[in-house]
Amino acid sequence: MSPLPPAALTGRLLLATPSLTDPNFQRAVVLVLNHDEDGALGVVVNRPLEVDVDAVLPGWQAFTTAPGKLFQGGPVALDSALGLVAVPGDRPDPAGVRRVFGSVGLGSVGLVDLDTPPEAVVDELAGLRIFAGYAGWGAGQLEGEIAEEAWFVLPAEARDAFSDSPERLWSDVLRRQGGDLALVASFPADVSLN
Questions:
Q1: CATH number for the 12-182 domain, one of 1.10.760.10, 3.40.1740.10, 3.40.50.2300, 3.90.1150.10?
Q2: Which residues have a Cβ under 8 Å from the Cβ of 151 and sit 6 or more positions away?
Q3: What would the DSSP string read from start to end of 114-149?
């Protein structure tokens, strides 16, 4: 496999193939936020926790996109929070936001300024999700996993990051691809029950 150019995966989705059985990533949908020669960083966008955002960030609950839960972004740095935002229309990026692709952005240093009162920033946003932790890969690690067919690499749509049905996102993204990938969407989660 030829090496991927820097940033080749930024803004793309990684969907765990049925052969990926690591419990951290089984049926995961990862939005890649950064990919360069040093590695890759992303967040799992289909793992809401049973924790309201207010439990960890008081005052932000009313401004988060449904289901209003904290999401487990991945197994790395679970004690950190990343804010993923949607910027409406053709507006310029709000202060501290770095666009990943389309309308989807990430706050500087991984955060929308969560120390600022939410009312001061939410008028500039069309969506907000808070993630505990992230998924990370060292240099060449993700490329190796892709070569081993652990991940499907697919185009992302802004709505994927803010899906109101995150538990169905893995299947939904596969179905919209058509062809053989659409068939994978119905693959049983536990093949031993087949």
A1: 3.40.1740.10
A2: 14, 15, 16, 17, 20, 30, 142, 145
A3: TTS-GGGTGGG-SEEEEEEEEEEEETTHHHHHHHTT
| pLDDT tens digits along 1-47 | 445 555 589 999 999 999 998 999 999 999 999 999 999 999 999 99
Note if the pTM is more than 0.70. yes
**Single-letter amino acid code for the residue at 115:** D
The span from the CA of 82 to the CA of 131, in Å, is 5
Q: At which residue do the structure tokens 């946003």 appear?
A: 125
Which contiguous run of DSSP H or E holds residue 34?
strand 29-36
Amino acid at position 147, single letter:
A
Sort 157 into a burial class: Cβ within 10 Å, 0-12 / 13-18 / 19+. middle
